[in-house]
Amino acid sequence: MEPVREHDRSLFGGTPEELPEKWARSSPITYVDRVKAPLLVIASRNDPRCPIRSVDNYLARLDELGTAYEVYRFEAGHFSVVVDEQVKQMQLQLDFCRRVLA
Q: Where are the domains of the chain?
């Protein structure tokens, strides 16, 4: 986990405590109120880069705003290397697009 944090610190030029405005500008939750279209969220329960609690906070805010979304959670790290899981996620994305864009 520390290598991920170090990578993020190098990208931002500091920690969230040192540069709170910069980190906030880069956070999806900062802009959640701008989401107007239905959203498909695919999230890993074990992602070290985007912890599931952050995803849950985002979804809770979407609920508060009444924004339509669907969520799929899977077991892996930042992404799955399991081919069957990758195929499943691609099918979810295609099905979502067919329904929402139709």
A: 1-34, 35-102
